Amino acid sequence: MARALTWLITGLVIASVAGWSLIQLLRGGQNASDTASIVSMVLTAAGLAVALAGWETARKTLPQEEDALKFAQSAAETLAKKILDAERKQFRALVGKDEEQFTLTFTRRPRDEFSGTGPARGQVVGSGPATEADLPGIAAYYRACSKPRLVVTGAPGAGKTVLSVQLVRDLIKLRGPDEPVPVRVSLAEWDMKVPFGELLIRHVVRAGTSEERARWMVGHGLVLPVLDGLDEMDPGRTDTDGNPLHGPDGRQLPDSEAPRALAALHLLSNHGGAVSEFPLVLLCRTAHYDALPRLKRLEHAVGVDIDPLDHQHVAAHLTTVFKDEERWQRFARGLSASGGAARDPHDAVVALPRQGRLSPAR
Predict the structure, then answer these.
(1) Helix residue ranges per DSSP H, the chain
(2) How far, in Å, CA of 109 to CA of 152, rounded?
């Protein structure tokens, strides 16, 4: 009704202008300037009609407020399928074509301020024999937390990437039409001058959608960012001469005053309104996250730390995976011969020098 009235009024205005202009031109006696003014009025009225038609076309092609959520949900469904396919390929690249992987367990972090609550432990089930049946998987763990923000820490090579890929896959399989699509985002490449919302939109576009659709989804809270690379945002500690300072493991010590990481955490803690309006998952190396001041870590988040794998766990897994591999048998026999005590593959791994942590993947 309103659109019809608008067109009626516009038509009357154009007709009035055209009629008046025609009468003036038929009367004659105008100089060149008067004639130009009359013609200009006619052109202006015609331009008004063209502009109104363009606005009407644009209005029909863009989603209205009452339909915008449906458009965003449809776009999210399409995006979820693309991401699931990409993460399946990524998972296979991480664990190998045989898809044999360790079972990863993780334990709730007790060291953070303003933390939420969640189960004491969880796991990512692998193909090894050490599965604990009563522990929730990573997606079930996340859904059971009191806050929709999860921080995952772990040592280098502990399996953070494997865990994040599994989380994305599982959440997509479980999601409903009104739930967000998990999208992995690299914090290391974040130019802090760019608003976080724009960074998220860029990664959604990179995941396989148009910028327009990405804005619909981000604007309606249908994207769950899975953030990695916080520990790569700043260089490590140095001495007064600028030389790197290394810990006992030979790695550069993390900086407790890491300016970009702390700025990112501040923005993430304050992005959006209530916590429930802005869920996220953050991954970081344990040493780097623990080096940051407690009160400056991500607020209102449940934290978990990936448990290190012990030698018995690794031995049992390798024995299961490579029991028919001649190369593994030769390796085990060689260790047995050099060590004198190891008599089977399991003992061979256990007899390895305990230097550092054996780990499954990135």
Answers:
(1) 2-27, 32-61, 65-95, 138-144, 160-174, 196-206, 211-219, 259-270, 286-291, 311-321, 326-339, 345-350
(2) 9
pTM (2 decimals)? 0.72
Model pLDDT for residues 68-91, shown as the tens digit of each residue? 788 888 999 999 999 999 988 887
Tell me if 226 sits within 8 A of 167, measured CB to CB. yes
Which of 184, 166, 173 shows the shortest CA–CA distance to 95?
166
How far apart CA 184 and CA 181 sit, in angstroms, is 10
Of 56, 45, 37, give the one whose Cα is nearest residue 19.
45
Radius of gyration of the chain (CA): 31
DSSP letter string, 235-274: ---B-TTSPBPB-TTSSBPPPTT-HHHHHHHHHHHHSSSS
Instruction: Tell the residue number behind the tokens 């992987």, with chain if given.
Output: 101
Q: How far apart are alpha carbons 72 and 64 in whole angstroms?
A: 12
